[in-house]
Amino acid sequence: QVQLVESGGGLVQPGGSLRLSCVASGSTLDYDNIGWFRQAPGKVREGVSCISSSDGSTYYKDSVKGRFSISRDSAKNTVYLQMNSLKPEDTAVYYCATTLAFCQGPDHWGQGTQVTVSS
């Protein structure tokens, strides 16, 4: 059974940075497509970034391109989401998930970590 645990969220001022971590147990993340998703209050959960298991291809939602970066650390079985130049509209609960295909079909979810961008 795959279990994912996110961490690294918190309160940050606009323009600040956070690095989210997604640690897996019960699976080797190198073999999994991984996505980062977020859900703001009153809004639908949306995909933010993905990384492919096959060739390391990445995807970013337009609004985060140039500010967010997804990466893997195989030795730590961890996927990261580096978030820079944060904006108030980035405020949400962030989730990582394994996906059945690149950026499609999330199946195993973590519990989420809250990111709040506010002055």
Concise overview:
The protein is mainly beta and 119 residues long. Helices cover 0% and strands 55% of the residues.
Percent helix, as a range, is: under 10%
Overall geometry comes to globular
Separate helix tally: 0
Strand content: over 45%
Gyration radius from CA atoms, angstroms: 13 Å
> What do the pLDDT scores average to?
94
Major β-sheet profile: 7 strands, mixed
Terminal CA distance: 40 Å
The number of E-state strands comes to 11
Oligomer: single chain
SS-based class:
mainly beta
Order of helices and strands: EEEEEEEEEEE
The residue ranges in which pLDDT falls below 50 over 5 or more consecutive positions are: none
Which terms would index this structure?
119 residues; mainly beta; 7-stranded mixed sheet; 4-stranded antiparallel sheet; 11 strands; 55% strand
Describe this protein's structure.
The chain is mostly beta strands. It is built from no helices and 11 strands. The chain has strands at 3-7, 10-12, 18-25, 33-39, 46-51, 58-60, 68-73, 78-83, 92-101, 104-109, 113-117. Strands 2, 4, 5, 6, 9, 10 and 11 form a 7-stranded mixed beta sheet that branches. A 4-stranded antiparallel beta sheet has the order 1-3-8-7, with no helix packed on it. The N and C termini lie far apart (40 Å).
